[in-house]
Amino acid sequence: MSERILGGVLLLVSLAGIWIGWDLQAPMSYEPVGPRAFPLLVLFLLGLCAIALMLEKKSETVWAPPPVLKRIGLLFLIVLVYALLFDKLGFMIATALMTVPVARFFGGSWKQGVVGGIGLGVGMFFFFDRLLDVALPTGLWLNGILG
Amino acid sequence: MLMQGFAVAGTPENLMIALIGCFIGTVVGLLPGLGPINGVAILLPIAFAMKLPPESALILLCAVYAGCEYGGRISAILINVPGDAGAVMTTLDGYPMAKKGLAGPALSMSALASFTGALLATIGIVAFAPLLAEWAIAFGPAEYFALMVLALSCLGGLVGDSLPKAMTACLIGLLLSTVGIDANSGVYRYTFDMLHLQDGIPFIVIVIGLFAVSELMLMLQNEHTASEPITLTGRLMFSMKELMLAKWTMLRSAFSGFFIGVLPGAGATIASAMCYAMERRMAGKDHQFGNGDIRGVAAPEAANNASANGSLVPMLTLGVPGSGTTAVMIGALTLYNITPGPTLFQDQPVIVWGLIASLFIGNVMLLVLNIPLIRVFVKFLSIPNWLLVPGVAAISLVGVYAVHGTTFDLILGTLIGGVGYLLRVMNFPIAPFILGFVLGDMMEQNLRRALSISDGDVGVLFASPISIGLWVAAVAMLVGPRVMRMLEQRKAVAA
After folding, report:
1. Contacts of residue B398 in chain A, CB cutoff 8 Å?
2. What is the CA radius of gyration of chain B?
3. Which residue in chain B has the smallest CA separation from A96?
4. What would the pLDDT profile of B394-440 be if each residue is shown by its tens digit?
């Protein structure tokens, strides 16, 4: 069933893509093949594959049991929030905040989560930002202190 | 030329980088869940952000790649969980050996096998790559287009259980590569008026999302009750008798592994499985395969290292990666504005020969790291997941952030990771996806160039004997493996 749904979604995507892509015309053209041919070709083939996916009769996807799936969804949300706060809160705080719940998911205790989070946040910040010269966001609150 | 390469690879800085790469690679390889693709994907942006020169960055990535193939065996032998996909076959005899108290010989023999495989394959690169590059230099845009179709269909035909799934993955990759301003006409394609999408979706965002972020979710799904690693006791080294028993196995597997690796699409996993099966069949009656035969660890390890190195051949000579990991490396080259392809040997001898020389040096380092210092790596097996997973999450986002420093990229990467998780659970192969994304732009450019030359006549794509050959091969690779499988099944049913 999940294959069919995905096939349907992909078919819609390819139709929408073709509809949008139809207007991709260069105002002035020096070459026989413009900017829209390649995407349209790919989308057309994608549409065919989507139909093939819907018709294919084998290999039903085995999803994780619902409680695990729920935790995976939560993990995804945590990473998404982490991505959102990465720049605003700065690397150290965002990482520490992310580590606590993720550590809990993987069998760590609260204490391990907090200690690990602070350790990762501070340790990796100094390792990357100071040692390797990979610039990381400090967050507004630290700018005054670290410069 | 090779000497010039050693001069590049032998600078103290590059030696240091190779050593660090080998170490990181072995660790990444031995951690279950993280394999060469994840390792290379995570390190690429960091190398880029550190402003390493291109040859050093490539040396780092290749050292990590080679190290991963060594590292995968450690967890395969000690906890019966392959550290990366190439080490699946190593569990079959490695773990039984460890249970019998022979973990030391299993580890040292597999390290030697890895070294043999990698060394032979590197010699193979030196012998074959320049020839292949010279031959390919005559390729025009039409041949190039056909060659890239061949690369995609090789990968699509061999991996995964379903042709529509493999093709879908590859087409999604191609489609995403068209996002952004079209270089020839300046038309905005599928940017949806978003400023950040003008230059297209950054390669690193796709790679990290697909391979690192989705991996976190898979790790939660597959979380097994971690078995205690078997402690290393007794002798560490294999005996002379064991070496004699396994030497031909190693050499045969190394040769076959290299040639399997050179073929686009067939990677380390297929090479190790085929060589294991071959050795088992050749071993005659009194073998112990499956119960801890030393040849059972030597064969897959020699094969997977040889094929990993062999897969560098199409990448360096044709600019067409044969595996997911080399696709990521091609992406690394393009980040440095180096166009991969047959002219690489002429235009960038420093990079190519430096890389090849560093493979020789790196493998000696890996052998030294992996036999006397094996106990150091065993310690890494006890890193708990509650620390490892947030660490991987943080490093992944550091990598994405290092490119443009925008929250947009971070969120896009995470969303792609979510989609990647769904696709991976549904058994969509991911390597064709990334290959499609990497090759998309080159494919389109070559297609348009070919059609410009012929003034729009599609026949130009099938005009030369080389391109016809490539098209035939592409169709055969796409359909062949499945027809063979169907025939085998029918035979099995009839019998």
Report:
1. 91, 124, 128, 134, 136
2. 22
3. B390
4. 988 988 888 888 889 999 999 999 999 999 888 888 888 888 888 88
- Choose among B50, B63, B49: nearest CA to B364: B63
Helix (H, G, I), strand (E, B) or coil at B198: coil
Collapsing DSSP to helix, strand or coil, A59 comes out as coil
Residues belonging to chain B: 495
CB-based contact A32 B456, cutoff 8 Å? yes
| Beta strand residue intervals within B233-316, DSSP E | none
Q: Is residue B167 less than 8 Å (CB to CB) from chain A?
A: yes
Is some CB atom of chain B closer than 8 A to the CB atom of A68? yes
Q: Which of B25-34, B65-74, B85-94, B279-288 has the lowest mean pLDDT?
A: B279-288
Which residues are within 8 A (CB) of B33 and not within 5 positions of it... i.e. 6 or more apart? B215, B218, B219, B222
A114 CB near a chain B CB, below 8 Å? no
Give the whole-angstrom CA distance, residue B357 versus residue B287: 38
Helix or strand run (H / E) with residue B189: strand B188-189
Q: By the CB < 8 Å criterion, does A105 face chain B?
A: yes
Residue-wise DSSP of B127-166: HHHHHHHHHHTT--HHHHHHHHHHHHHHHHHHSSS-HHHH
Residue B463 has a CB neighbour count (10 Å cut-off) of 15
**pLDDT band, very low/low/confident/very high, at A59 (cuts 50, 70, 90):** low
- Does A145 score more than 70 pLDDT? no
pLDDT tens digits for range A73-104? 999 999 999 999 898 888 899 999 999 999 98
Query: Which residues, 6 or more positions from B458, have their beta carbon under 8 angstroms from its beta carbon?
Result: B451
Residue B27's contacts (CB-CB under 8 Å, 6 or more residues apart) are: B67, B71, B377, B380
Contacts of B456 in chain A (CB under 8 A): 32-33
The pLDDT-based confidence of B370 (bands split at 50, 70, 90) is confident
Cβ atoms A137, A87 nearer than 8 A: yes
**ipTM value for the complex:** 0.90
Within 8 A of A26 by CB-CB distance, chain B residues are: 182, 184-187
Q: How many helices, marked H, and strands, marked E, lie in chain B? A: 22, 2
From the list B449, B423, B467, the residue with the least C-alpha distance to B168 is B423
Would an 8 Å CB–CB cutoff place A134 in contact with chain B?
yes
Q: Does A42 sit within 8 Å of B175, measured CB to CB? A: yes
What kind and span of H or E run contains A5? helix A2-21
Would you list the domain boundaries of chain B?
Answer: 2-494
H/E run at residue B88: none
- What token pair was written down for A5? 């749904």
CB pairs under 8 A between A and B: 204
Report which residue type is found at B398.
Answer: V
How long, in residues, is chain A? 147
What DSSP designation does B160 have? S
pLDDT at site A143: 62
Inter-residue contact B359 to B114 (CB < 8 Å): no
